[in-house]
């Protein structure tokens, strides 16, 4: 029997508590379902984009979402993306969860999500009960206690930065190859609002990666969507975690409000009150055809159980049928037919 090569390299760091729990949870998922993950180790550069949701007071969960991809193999998505932008978003407007009420964005979002299923990689969404956030954060250190020179950070943005950094470094440690470059981008917001904060955030990300990653990487670059070269490719890659984080935050908060209990580890139906955009994105996150899309999706839930206890689990969003709206394969067949050149006799 041929031994299956596992994609996920677990941290095996019990002292990291919740971070190690999440890593081990994903390890066990891959052991149960060997196609749960798609390797991003083949090309020279791993790409990570990230965003978060649930910042408003009414949200019960903060969501942190990460897209991990092999940069060498996003070319097909990029061709589809350019076509979608030409058809629906030729004025350069950005897709984002908050702005999906806009008519043109609403027309573009389903083709965009369908095309994104062609990206070989992983979309990981971690939904953390806000009472559990200290378990995945580091406190803002005093000026003379930090290993990294920090400016006048406010507590909430700094702690959010540490959550992004720890989870992102976990993904790099688990999925990168020795010598591989890592390009890591986030939206330009409270964790990297200006050049000075970005420089400090970069130093913190490098610190976490150096602490967690067991092998030597190539170049590590951390930046914001302001680095986009004008094609909006980087903006669009960051849109995926933005939309996933927004939808999952709203979904889980509504499930809790509807049932009066925490979101379950198996969710079969969303509340009828869930906004249309969140329902649509939940369908995209749930869609699991056989064989699976190149873009795998995992949803981790951290629930507060009271008495200083918590539960970490994987949520399976299920649909009663496959969603043809998100099936990219007919378009790929048409695309390849157009590209095929039949030699003349």
Quickly describe the structure.
The chain has 345 residues and is α/β, with parallel strands linked by helices. It has helices at 18-32, 75-88, 103-116, 155-175, 195-212, 233-259, 276-286, 329-339, and strands at 45-53, 61-70, 121-129, 181-186, 220-224, 266-267, 295-306, 309-314, 316-317.
Describe the structure.
- By secondary structure, the chain is α/β, with parallel strands linked by helices.
- It has helices at residues 18-32, 75-88, 103-116, 155-175, 195-212, 233-259, 276-286, 329-339; strands at 45-53, 61-70, 121-129, 181-186, 220-224, 266-267, 295-306, 309-314, 316-317.
- The chain has a 7-stranded mixed beta sheet, with helices on both faces.
- Helix 5 links the parallel strand 4 and strand 5 (220-224).
What are the SSEs and their pairings?
Layout: H1 18-32, E1 45-53, E2 61-70, H2 75-88, H3 103-116, E3 121-129, H4 155-175, E4 181-186, H5 195-212, E5 220-224, H6 233-259, E6 266-267, H7 276-286, E7 295-306, E8 309-314, E9 316-317, H8 329-339
Parallel strand pairs: 1-4, 3-7, 4-5, 6-9
Antiparallel strand pairs: 1-2, 2-3, 7-8
Q: Helical stretch count? A: 8
Q: Give the spatial strand order of the biggest sheet.
A: 5-4-1-2-3-7-8
Query: What is the CATH homology-level superfamily?
Result: Ribonuclease H-like superfamily/Ribonuclease H
Tally the structural domains: 1
CATH architecture field: 2-Layer Sandwich
What's the CATH class label?
Answer: Alpha Beta
